[in-house]
Every structure is written in structure tokens, then in C-alpha cells.
Amino acid sequence: MAPVEAEQHPRTALALAAHDASGRVSPIRISRRDTGDDDVAIQILYCGICHSDLHTIKNEWKNANYPVVPGHEIAGLITEVGKNVKKFNVGDKVGVGCMVNTCQSCESCEEGHENHCSKIIFAYNSHDRDGTITYGGYSDMVVVNERFVIRFPDGVPLDKGAPLLCAGITVYNPMKYHGLDEPGKHIGVVGLGGLGHVAVKFAKAFGMRVTVISTSPEKREEAMETLGADAFVVSSDANQMKLGCSFRSLSMAVKGTMHGILNTASASMSMYAYLALLKPQGKMILLGLPEKPLQISAFSLVTGGKTLAGSCMGSIRDTQEMMDFAAKHGLVADVELIGTEEVNEAMERLAKGEVRYRFVIDVGNTLSAASLASSPVPAL
Ligand SMILES: NC(=O)C1=CN([C@@H]2O[C@H](COP(=O)(O)OP(=O)(O)OC[C@H]3O[C@@H](n4cnc5c(N)ncnc54)[C@H](OP(=O)(O)O)[C@@H]3O)[C@@H](O)[C@H]2O)C=CC1
Ligand SMILES: O=C/C=C/c1ccc(O)c(O)c1
Questions:
Q1: Ligand 2 in contact with 276 (CB < 6 A)?
Q2: Which atom of ligand 2 is nearest to the CA of 125?
Q3: Which co-factor is required (predicted)?
Q4: What per-residue confidence (pLDDT) applies to 368?
Q5: Based on the number of CB atoms within 10 Å of its own CB, is 375 exposed (0-12), middle (13-18) or buried (19 or more)?
Q6: Among 58, 312, 319, which is best to mutate for testing ligand 2, by the most ligand atoms less than 8 A from CB?
Q7: 46 FRET partner, CA 20 to 30 A, in 144, 206, 249, 323?
């Protein structure tokens, strides 16, 4: 697909783009479309770094359309509204998550589950309706159809709220649709990263019993004392887990006790030991999208009549509901705020699991012509 033509889209924006699979980004000047009748223009102030950004820029999913401008946890202020826009005004605090358009006419769209539309247009690395590739939130501004914009409720700060636009809805959605939002039920959270830590927070807000299953023993204290998890199981005895036939590394006390598990691991694993944590008829919901296939034995599911399901983001309606729920419960992400110049180091740390628990780029203060004045910024 041809890159954006300056003549077609004269408005330019500053951005960080990956040009190859090195996992690194660098400043670039991109084009953004003019604000259409149904669009809003947003000054981006913060953008979270999701592990999907890293999978994509490293081309782990084999679908990168370079240059890739990642970012789908976008928070900022409306600077312009198109003439048909009804929901928003200039100055509103808003967010944009993983999708920026869908067909709006298929069964999924009509049922309000547009996150399952086969013509979904993702916030970045996706073919837009005009044939260009979408660019995400590692940028100082974006233009989005108002239907795909979320209002930040009062009390939810833009920096700590930005990760809710992807991580938040991705964990809230399966809790809501799989009955894993009921007080007293026991839920497991595999992987204490960006998704996992907000999963613990939502589950506690729903009044559930929460066990974290983690490869990182050093996260135990914080998981239990700060995030409020009730139990913490270390799964880092990697040899045992890979063999897939031993529970010596897992606490026998939690075996067969969980109504559901949200699996947020970004890497492949043998599912055997994890599925054994479920009660009969329990549900394992896959959220992580590792590069390599998972290993699973039919016996793990058939015995006990267990369900293995997947869940992909959430609808716009559910995202707004999740944000309002977060506001009501004072629920925000734990973030490490970083500058534009720290993004490459952050990507390396994210790959090693060294973040507590979401990097958020301070776009508003660190991505400007002035801040990049020392080096020339190439244009696409
Ligand atoms: N389904 C959807 O709609 C969405 C999917 N995703 C996907 O979800 C995944 C998680 O994203 P995010 O939370 O941002 O990533 P993070 O890197 O923040 O967290 C992932 C966590 O997975 C755990 N982990 C890593 N390797 C392994 C392993 N080999 N075995 C078990 N656990 C492991 C680590 O937790 P610990 O140290 O506790 O073990 C790590 O912190 C990614 O694959 C991402 O692409 C993201 C957004 C939406
Ligand atoms: O971070 C969210 C990504 C979700 C996603 C789901 C499905 C798919 O094909 C993707 O490329 C991304």
C-alpha cells in the first residue's frame, strides 16, 4: 500500500515510527487526514505502551506494514470537531483504544460487538478506508471518527487512565461476558503485566477472590500488598511447566479451585498445569497473543468439562462502561511515565518483563518540534 501522500493529507504530525523489526522507533513526520464531518481531532497527551505494540514493531505477528507508528492507549484533548459531531466538544478529555473504525453494518456491528467486525480498522498498522495505513498514538495528534472515541469520566487522570483503553477493556470484557465478575468467585490471572495488573484491580472491585500466577517471584509482595491479590503462585519453575506433566511448582492448594482464569501471558506456554487450576466446568480465557502456538492436551479440557476461550478487546459501549466503572471505583493503572527519548529503552525493558506495570509516554511534554530540535525529523 502506498504511503500517505502529502497532497492528499496536508496536515502533518510528529510521531515515533518503527522502520524494521529491530524493536526500535525513531521520530518521523507523518500526515493526518483533515477533520471530516464525523471526526474529531485530538491533541495526544499520553499513550500507553502495550505488549501488542512490541509484538507488532518486531513483526512477531508477521503483519507489520512499516513504517509502523504504534499506540492504542491514547489519551488527550479534543481540538476540533467536524460539523456532524454530536457527542464531543473542543476541550473534552477523551481516549482512543485499539479500533478506529468498523463496517457498522455486519451482524457483529449491529449487535454492538464491533470489536469482532471482520473489517475492523485498528488504530495502527491497519488499512484505512482511504487505502492508507493507520498510525497510532505515539504521535502528537490524531483524527478519529467520533464513534470510536471514549469520554474520560471526571476523576480518571489521562496518564493513569490511558492504559484502560486497551488493557482495561481487554480484561473487563471477558469478566463481564463469562460470568467472572461475581462476588466470591475465584479468578486466576496469569501474567502480572499491563493487562494482568488491571485484571487484579477489576476482579477485586467486583469482590472476587484473586490468585496471580506469575513467572516472577519478585512481584509477589506488590501483587498481594498493593494490588490486593489474595494469593500468588509462582510458575517460574519453567522446566516443570514446559514438561507439562508436573505440579510440583504449583501450590496444590489452588489446584481445581478457580472458576475462571484470564491468561494474559505474552509468551507461549504449555497449558497443562494452568488448566488444572480450574474447577470442573471452569473457563480459561486467552487474552495474550504470543508469537508461537500454545501447547495443549485434549485431556486437560475434556476431563472436568473445561472451556478454553479467547477474547478480543471490547466494544466501544463496553469500553465506556468500563471507564465509568473505573471512575466509580477509583481504579487506574500503575504507570511508569517516560519521555519520547526513553521509548526504545522501555521496549527493551518490556520484552524482559521489567515494568511496573505499564509504560506511558508523556507525549504532550516530550514530543514536540522543540524537543526534537537537535536532530532533523524525516518526513514520510
Ligand atoms: N486479546 C486482546 O484483545 C489483547 C491482547 N493483548 C496481548 O496480551 C498480551 C499481554 O499484553 P501486556 O499485558 O501488555 O504485556 P506485558 O508484557 O505487560 O505482560 C505480559 C506478562 O506475561 C507474563 N509472561 C511473560 N512470559 C511468560 C511465559 N513464558 N509464561 C508465562 N507468563 C509469561 C509476564 O508476567 P509475570 O512476570 O507475572 O509472569 C509478563 O509481565 C500480549 O501478548 C498482547 O499482545 C494485548 C491487548 C489486547
Ligand atoms: O492489543 C490488542 C491487539 C489485538 C489484536 C487482536 C487480533 C488481531 O488480529 C490483532 O492483530 C490484534
A1: no
A2: 11
A3: Zn(2+)
A4: 81
A5: exposed
A6: 312
A7: 206
Q: How far apart are CA 369 and CA 363, in angstroms?
A: 12
Provide mean pLDDT across the span 197-226.
96
Contacts of 173 (CB under 8 A, 6+ apart): 115, 311, 313, 314, 315, 318, 322
- The residues, ordered by sequence, that sit 6+ positions from 112 with a Cβ below 8 Å of its Cβ are 315, 317
pTM of the model: 0.95
Please tell me the residue having the least CA distance from ligand 2 atom 8. Answer: 312
pLDDT of residue 253: 76
The residue among 141, 158, 136, 167 whose CA lies nearest residue 25 is 136
Same fold, 11-165+314-372 and 167-310: no
State residue 9's pLDDT score.
56
52 touches ligand 2 (CB under 6 Å): yes
The atom of ligand 2 lying closest to the CA of 63 is 11
pLDDT value for 348: 98
Ligand 1 centroid to 363 CA: how many Å? Answer: 24
CA distance 103 to 246: 47
The mean pLDDT of 105-115, rounded to a whole number, is: 98
Query: What whole-number distance in Å separates Cα of residue 23 and Cα of residue 5?
Result: 26
Q: Where are the domains of the chain?
A: 11-165+314-372, 167-310
Q: Residue 41 has which C-alpha cell?
A: 481531532
Q: Where are the beta strands (DSSP E) in 54-190?
A: 74-81, 93-96, 99-101, 121-122, 141-145, 150-151, 186-190
Hey, what CATH class is 167-310 in? alpha beta
**Domain covering 11-165+314-372 in this structure, CATH number:** 3.90.180.10
Q: What is the ipTM of this complex?
A: 0.98
Compute the distance from residue 78 Cα to the ligand 1 centre, in Å: 31
Residue 195: partners with Cβ closer than 8 Å, 6 or more residues away: 167, 170, 171, 262, 264, 287, 288
**Ligand 1 atom closest to the CA of 241, numbered from 1:** 30
